[in-house]
Automatic annotation (TrEMBL):
Annotated transmembrane regions: 48-71, 83-106, 127-147, 197-223
GO biological process: membrane depolarization during action potential
Species this protein is from: Murinocardiopsis flavida
Taxonomic classification: Bacteria, Bacillati, Actinomycetota, Actinomycetes, Streptosporangiales
Protein name per the record: Voltage-gated sodium channel
UniProt KW keywords: Ion channel, Ion transport, Membrane, Transmembrane, Transmembrane helix, Transport
A matching Pfam family: Ion_trans
Length: 291
């Protein structure tokens, strides 16, 4: 019983708002301290204090995970986000030796724990992962368009602008810059001066890749997020309907019991009336007749 009581208290603490807000505040403060460490010229004399603060944050995060493990039990390990938290915090407790010094640079990943702590961020990332099948198809289409355009562009403009279209790899990188529409006039101008017809290639590629295919990618992501939100709302509606159904059924059950009780009372009253009538009739028969 004592263990169950302590676990119940741990569950209440983990599910409380102040606990979540404390974890979020610790993650944000830890991110700020890690950012301030980069200003070595300004905060160099306070390196020791940053080390103490880092150990304090690590202790808080380890304590948080231990409380969650105790409260959730084995259910804690069934959530992928909890594995992410374990990895991020586990990196922080690796000894800072020469062999593991690179892992210490991953301390900044603690800031990514905001995604697992804040439900809204977690929903967005979950929607992105659910959109991977649709995204893979659209990204595959984009790759086919870029590869075909790269081979065509390399054949057409290799001699005119070898800086941008010298080989297949260089051309793919050039097309990626065109895809971002960043400084694309510089690329096109280097070719159009000697090949005036080249504007057709650049216009068609930018319209198809940057305006059509990228919008398809955005459409897939938005649709996935909308489905995620609708699915959550559907679950909430189902829970509400189930609660209402149980309430109505409970009221119907109580009403049925009340009707049954009243019916029993009516039957009892009817039987009593019949006995009363029979008793009155027999009394009249046994009474002496007047002379």
């Amino acid at each position: 019983m004592a263990g169950g009581g302590f676990r119940g208290r741990a569950v209440a603490v983990v599910d409380s708002g102040w606990f979540q807000n404390t974890v979020i505040a610790a993650i944000v403060l830890n991110g700020i301290s890690l950012g301030l460490e980069t200003y070595e010229d300004v905060f160099g004399p306070y390196t020791a204090y940053f080390g103490i603060a880092d150990r304090v944050f690590v202790t808080l995060f380890v304590t948080e995970l231990l409380v969650k493990v105790y409260a959730r039990g084995w259910a804690f390990f069934r959530d992928p986000w909890n594995w992410f938290d374990l990895f991020v915090v586990g990196v922080a407790v690796v000894p800072a030796t020469d062999g593991f010094s690179v892992l210490r640079l991953l301390r900044i990943l603690r800031l990514l724990r905001l995604i697992s702590v804040i439900p809204q961020m977690r929903e967005i990332v979950s929607a992105l992962f659910r959109s991977v099948p649709g995204l893979s198809t659209v990204i595959g289409l984009l790759f086919v368009i870029m590869y075909t355009s790269a081979v065509l562009g390399e054949k057409l403009f290799e001699d005119i602008s070898p800086h941008y279209f010298g080989d297949l790899g260089t051309t793919l990188y050039t097309l990626f810059m065109l895809l971002t529409t960043e400084n694309w006039p510089d690329i096109s101008d280097s070719v159009i001066e000697e090949a005036p017809y080249a504007w057709v290639f650049f216009v068609v590629f930018i319209v198809v890749s940057a305006f059509i295919v990228l919008n398809l990618i955005l459409g897939v992501i938005v649709t996935s997020m909308e489905q995620e939100v609708n699915a959550e709302r559907w679950e909430e509606d189902q829970e509400l309907e189930l609660a209402q159904h149980e309430s109505v059924m409970a009221q119907l059950g109580a009403l049925t019991e009340e009707v049954a009780r009243l019916s029993a009372q009516m039957r009892a009253m009817g039987v009593a009336g019949e006995f009363a009538e029979e008793g009155g009739g027999m009394g009249k028969q046994n009474s002496p007749s007047p002379e």
